[in-house]
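ok so for the tutorial part 2 we go from a plain amino acid sequence to predicted structure tokens. step 1 is just haveing the sequence, like this:
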Amino acid sequence: MFYRYISKQGLLSHRYHTAMSTRGIRGATQISDNSSESINSGVLELVKSMLLENSVDTDDLVSIVFTATIDLTAQFPAVAARELGLGNVPLLCSVEIDVPGALPRVIRVLMHINTDKGLKDIKHIYLHGASALRKDIAQ
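step 2 — the prediction. this is what the tokens look like for a chain of 139 residues:
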């Protein structure tokens, strides 16, 4: 769709506009132990996979929410995301609900993006032991 607007310089301009929506991408990974190194490498692998598999440019990121199971306390998952250059993206960490019998050592991610993709085109990423959480869509 084309639309007209007046630029900051007072000039009439035309621009092509595509419909963008805010979508959520889910992901999770299970790491081997409660260490900064394991948390860091697990988050880096997961976030990179989510971005690559969905062709997300970092400018299209709205925010990222991380949760970690109660047994992961060595480092905030957001620290690893900042190492990817996502320091300007709002990042939030939280503790996952401690459900008896739940999978241990799991980091979950909800990534909000602006995109023209439909819901069916979003690829959710579940790695390592976390693939058991969503067998219907796990890699």
